[in-house]
Write a structure and sequence with these properties.
The protein is mostly helical.
Length: 62
């Protein structure tokens, strides 16, 4: 764990009076969901690029 994460965890434990393990679990979950959101946005961008490509291709053939 990076030292900045340790500081963040320590501050959150003190502020919200929750366990260190709970904060670690929440951090891991947020990283996972952040990665999944990034992955989903890349998929959406790829789909939009394909749509644009095929629309332009159809316009040229007309």
């Amino acid at each position: 764990m990076h030292y900045t994460e340790r500081l963040l965890v320590h501050k959150l434990v003190k502020k919200h009076n929750i366990s260190f393990e709970m904060v670690q679990k929440l951090l891991k979950e947020s990283k996972k969901s952040s990665y999944e959101n990034q992955k989903d946005s890349k998929k959406i961008a790829e789909i939009e690029n394909l749509i644009t490509f095929y629309v332009k291709k159809e316009e040229k053939s007309d």
